[in-house]
Amino acid sequence: METFPAIITPFDESQVQAAVICSKKSGIQIRIRSRGHDYEGLSYVSRAPFIIIDLFNLRSIDVDIKNESAWVKSGATLGELYYNIAQKSKVYAFPAGTCPTVGAGGHISGGGVGTIFRKYGLASDNVIDARIVDLNGRILDRKSMGEELFWAIRGGGSSFGVILAWKLRLVPVPPTVTVCDVTKTKEQGATKFLLKWQNIADKLPEDLFLHSVVGSSDNTITVEFGSLFLGRVDKAVQVIQENFPELSLESSHCSEMSWIQSVLDSADCWLLDPRILGDFAEAPAIQLLLQSKIRLGD
Ligand SMILES: Cc1cc2nc3c(=O)[nH]c(=O)nc-3n(C[C@H](O)[C@H](O)[C@H](O)COP(=O)(O)OP(=O)(O)OC[C@H]3O[C@@H](n4cnc5c(N)ncnc54)[C@H](O)[C@@H]3O)c2cc1C
What residue ranges are annotated as transmembrane (predicted)? Predict the structure, then answer.
């Protein structure tokens, strides 16, 4: 593997253009990093000489509730996006992933699956415009890049240019959503439940997202069934009981909350204040959480 001679951290778009033009002239490859969550390290590893353009400084978010849209720069995290939407309205959301520290740049260019995707599709399905720097250092928007390139950047990965920002379509959510959670052990027939879930999960009403996580606890195998329902608890329980009666789900397995609180719940930070999403890395609460995790790992 090559080491990189430079990490460029642009503060404005012209610096991204300069980095692209210079690296092209010098015959050096570019790796683009928004928030560095790539599972294979594609944003910071290469076999050829390369530089990293790291976009973490380009992270502003402009939410326009009246027009049901938002511009988000690539270096913003999903948590920052969700928080900024919730600051403006409790009844709008964006359908993207559950991990608040993932970057908008990498996530949306690869698709983006989250808890409301059954109703609203992938994050990339909800992009209505974008600004990119192309191979020649030009800044293009949807109109100037044309529909073919605009199609490619929404799910086709990272090789079409540097995404500077996305314009997103916001989607409506009710003021109260319901999250439910039931865990079954191997002794309770977890395998049977998993089989049933596989057969019904994609046929449920689109307001209901029901996922399963296989794990282990107390020397046994567990399957956790977690759900998000776009509505109140009584309806959530009714829909799950109708479609998956074997689960024996009751309202005591569920909690009503706002959509932004459900974001924290999905990220296993349910006790925390949504304000931590606004600046995830800096917030005192998340620092405490990280420190406690580090201590646990010692
Ligand atoms: C803990 C964790 C939880 C996750 N949860 C979910 C989830 O709930 N749903 C889901 O769908 N996915 C999830 N993912 C996957 C995640 O969406 C992808 O790995 C995503 O590509 C990460 O984006 P990033 O900007 O943080 O990563 P980066 O490593 O910065 O980038 C990922 C890829 O996109 C390219 N790229 C980044 N920014 C740009 C840009 N501005 N222009 C062009 N190309 C760019 C990079 O070169 C690289 O190839 C998760 C990943 C992790 C590690």
Answer: none
Q: What's the mean pLDDT in 34-44?
A: 93
Q: Looking at residue 1, what is its pLDDT?
A: 65
Q: Which residue, judged by its Cα, is nearest atom 53 of ligand 1? A: 37
Q: Which residue's structure tokens are 């309205």? A: 89
Question: According to the model, what pLDDT value does residue 295 have?
Answer: 42
Pairwise pLDDT comparison (157 vs 92), residue with the higher score? 92
Any residues with Cβ below 6 Å from ligand 1, and which?
Answer: 31-39, 42-43, 55, 74, 97-99, 102-103, 105-107, 109-114, 158, 162-163
What element of type H or E holds 63? strand 61-64
Between CA 42 and CA 129 the distance in angstroms is 25
- Domains of the chain in start order, with CATH, are 7-54 (3.30.43.10), 61-172 (3.30.465.10), 177-257 (3.40.462.20)
Q: What is the ipTM of this complex?
A: 0.99
The beta strand positions in 145-202, using DSSP E, are: 162-169, 171-172, 177-185
For residues 217 and 227, give the distance between their C-alpha atoms in angstroms, rounded to a whole number: 20
Atom of ligand 1 nearest to the CA of 33: 30
On the CB side of 162, CA atoms within 13 Å amount to 33
Which residues are CB-neighbours of 66 under 8 A, at least 6 positions away? none
How far apart, in whole angstroms, are the C-alpha atoms of residue 195 and residue 26? 55
The helix (run of H) or strand (run of E) holding residue 242 is helix 233-243
Closest ligand 1 atom to 55 CA? 41
Do 77 and 56 contact (CB within 8 A), yes or no? no
pLDDT band at 297 (very low <50, low <70, confident <90, very high): very low
In order of 59, 181, 247, the CA distances from 252 in angstroms are 40, 9, 13
